[in-house]
Amino acid sequence: MTLRLEDLVGLEVFVDTIRLGSISAAAREHHLSQPSATERLRQLERRMGVRLLVRGPSGSVPTTEGEAVAGWAHEVLAAVDRLASGVVALRASGTSGPLRIMASLTVAEYVLPDWLHAHRATGGAPVELAVGNSVAVARAVAEGAVQLGFVETPRRFPGLSTASVGGDRLTVVVAPGHPWARRRRPLTAAELAAAPLLVREAGSGTRDAFEAALAEVGFELATPLAVLASTTTLKAAAMAGDGACVLSELAVAGEIATGRLLAVPVADLDLRREFRAVWSAGGAAADVQRFVRLARQAGRPA
Prior knowledge:
The protein is of the alpha/beta class. Helix content is 47%, strand content 19%.
């Protein structure tokens, strides 16, 4: 059996299910929907080939095998933290070079340019920037490919430290000809959850945040109308009348201002989300600390 990076999240969910007494409590701890947390645990059980938990109406308790795995899981998660600490120490002792940053798409396109300008204006080190979805960003930081990441997902990532650097709000947008454009009352969370939507791919911070918001009020995302891998493609599809989508207010401000898209209010759903910096849990080099401080000072509230 070979553990993968995504299994570490499952291990954390498993350990926290035992600690908190239920999968739903562990899901809240990790900002996951309960179905998502349950699926991670099932994947972990399938990969290990043993049953880890006994699930019941009053909560979840470990099996005999689960108790043994939990003890080893604590050691594995502690080892991940030690590994991250060692890698940070190695990088800090090497020769200086560009600050390697990777950011999720919304942060990279609409927030990071101002941070980079302030960083350069105050004598910061040269920056090499890569862009990907939030899960790809966390993986790059965990593997040491970059020193600092910025994500927009509520997921937690083992072995990484985090700090809030502001946020934004998701908004439902449609073309002027869409039926929702003529509504006089806000959408309900139930209506939004039941509608086939244009959505980003799994691992996208925008999709994660939207699914987490639905889970908070007891709903799951319906089968998508289409899954598209970029904000630009989603906006183009929505403007063409293909369907509704949920995107950052930063990403659709221009289209709303010109009337190409219309924002649809939602009555009972908190669509605020947080942007977070992530770096190795073992510590951060001086350039990383400096950039995080700058981002926190400039961060916009959600």
